[in-house]
Amino acid sequence: MAFENLSEKLQKALRKLTGKGKISENDINQASREIRLALLEADVNFKVVKKFIKTIKAEALGKEVQESLNPGQQIIKIVNDELTKMMGSDTASIIEAKHIPTIIMMVGLQGTGKTTTVGKLANYLIKNKKARPLLIAGDIYRPAAIDQLKTIGASLDVPVYSENNTDVVAIVENGLMQADRNHNDYVIIDTAGRLEIDDQLMDELKNIVDVAHPENIILVADAMTGQVAATVAEGFNSKLKLTGLILTKLDGDTRGGAALSIREVTGLPILFTGQGEKLTELDTFHPDRMASRILGMGDMLSLIEKAQQDFDAKEAEKVAQKMRENTFDFNDFVDQMDQMQKMGPLDQIIKMIPGMANNPALKNFKVPDKQIAHTKAIVYSMTPAEREDPDLLNPSRRRRIAGGCGLSVVEVNRMIKQFKQAKDMMQKVTSGNFKGLSNLPGM
Ligand code: GDP
């Protein structure tokens, strides 16, 4: 699986920062060194790495991070945001023409997966845009390519225009006329590839551009080739003005460097990634999701953002401090409930934690408002000393409390148990250990 190594190393470097109350410059330097190495090992372009590390360091050392509740998590968020930016921030898409047909020209070196990707794209357009595409077989030097495209076309029930002719410009012109006659809304032109970029190939491709005027000139690049993919993209782009990229073979044993640096090096958006040999194995490229996946973050980032938005930072810092000093008491428990209620339904918040969203135990998990009201009633029936020291709560005190709030002793006992579990869980979160979260009450 692509990125496995990189993902592991980045997570390892960042894990060391989570749970720390303060992060020193030294910590940041060390993490930066590890991140830098991980990126270079993943074959990310070194200039891209240099710029990335510089930004991360500057932001991590910033006042905002240093004064935040959990600087480690803030740094993860910074790394995630920068990774996303590196890959292009927004999800790009194929430009659709105002008039029909939309013409897509596919270019790339031999063996990168161009012909296969023509088929994948046709399939994508049919499924997502109810398109009626026509494919033009413009890779005339490799007879097998024409047959391959015909086979792909037949399997998708998509027409393929081909000629037994060496004049590829004429083939494309004739193919476009056929698309007009048949009212195809998309035309995808497969073109010849070479082992490397040469002038003859570029001239031929330019001639096709002159007659077809494609809105989309997409380079198919092989992610397995790492940085070479970026160099190739630059070469094609300087001659043809590409509009986007498709990275193939991201399912393979690639180190991922191409996906990480090609955007920054070329300025071109990655539109899709190929994730296998089958015609269905084409994925829209979402830089943000890819970054989260690399960092193994799940929806944790949305959770951090939400906490940032809704939590009173001073209040939260107070709680974190109490967690560290192990002095979290029933008063804080009630305060926490108020804070959590501000963020929205607790069950939904918990599901944003990585690994929790699909946890079957959580399927019907709900924290009813009534339960929160009961918890508060129990706490309000305690003496100030009891609220501060749960260990005082012997059976006779528990009976008195139950009588005071009109609930059963069983309910009082349950609430005290839940308090202890919650305390335990929060201590794990504050120390950056999410593993114990499955022990939450009700899970
Ligand atoms: P072309 O010479 O650029 O037209 O390349 P082809 O379309 O003939 O593909 C070359 C080889 O790469 C074929 O064996 C394809 O099945 C394979 N291939 C294409 N895309 C992918 C992909 O995303 N993942 C994997 N694993 N193999 C791919």
UniProtKB/TrEMBL annotation:
Keywords of the record: Cytoplasm, GTP-binding, Hydrolase, Nucleotide-binding, Ribonucleoprotein, RNA-binding, Signal recognition particle
Residues of the Signal recognition particle SRP54 helical bundle domain: 2-87
Domain notes: Composed of three domains: the N-terminal N domain, which is responsible for interactions with the ribosome, the central G domain, which binds GTP, and the C-terminal M domain, which binds the RNA and the signal sequence of the RNC.
Protein name: Signal recognition particle protein
Role this protein plays: Involved in targeting and insertion of nascent membrane proteins into the cytoplasmic membrane. Binds to the hydrophobic signal sequence of the ribosome-nascent chain (RNC) as it emerges from the ribosomes. The SRP-RNC complex is then targeted to the cytoplasmic membrane where it interacts with the SRP receptor FtsY.
Main location: cytoplasm
Sequence similarity: Belongs to the GTP-binding SRP family. SRP54 subfamily.
Residues reported in the UniProt entry to bind GTP: 108-115, 190-194, 248-251
Reaction(s) catalysed (UniProt annotation): GTP + H2O = GDP + phosphate + H(+)
Enzyme class: hydrolase
SUPFAM superfamilies named in the record: P-loop containing nucleoside triphosphate hydrolases (SSF52540), Signal peptide-binding domain (SSF47446)
Quaternary data: Part of the signal recognition particle protein translocation system, which is composed of SRP and FtsY.
Transmembrane spans: none
Domain AAA+ ATPase: 100-301
